[in-house]
Write a structure and sequence with these properties.
The protein is built from 4 helices and 11 strands, in the order H-E-E-H-E-E-E-E-H-E-E-E-E-E-H. With 175 residues, it is of the alpha+beta class. The chain has one domain. Strand 3 and strand 4 form a beta hairpin. The strands form 3 sheets. The protein has a 6-stranded antiparallel sheet with strand order 6-5-4-3-8-11. A 3-stranded antiparallel sheet has the order 1-2-7.
Amino acid sequence: MFETFKQGIVGLALFFGNWMGPSTGVAEIKIEHVKRIEQAYLVSCRIDLSRDSRLEQLVDAGIPLRVALVARPVPGDSISLVRTLRFDVVDYTYSFTDSSSSNTMASKKFPMLLLALKEFSQWETRLPLTTSRCTFDASVLPSAVSRLGRELDMSQIWDRQRLTITVDIRTLAEK
């Protein structure tokens, strides 16, 4: 019961924040923090989504939002993940799945889209200690609309199809 109450308060705060806050209309990737752990850097990233009311309408209509998240460390191999946000019409809940080359993980179920988007837009990745800089990409992928037999390009919800940021990992880890 307390968890439901807490989600309701957070959802209400997110709703009013999105409603009252200034809308920049620009999506971007932000680096929350970089921590050095054992034999790696743990990088927490967040996508600031541009506010568009069409997002909720499209996801509620059963069209998943698919985003490819890629980290390209220098030197090193790319780390990629496909994150898919869906609406479950049976439960009236939102959840997302993360698919990488090694596994697939599902998130918990959220009663409100804003709560799901808050978690959907954050991710962490581990980079080797040899990494000097890294480029992070987030690309909106086409979503299959099975009822129409088509694919829908959801990139119009953002101001562009691909978001990119390049950062000096060692400098950020020292802060």
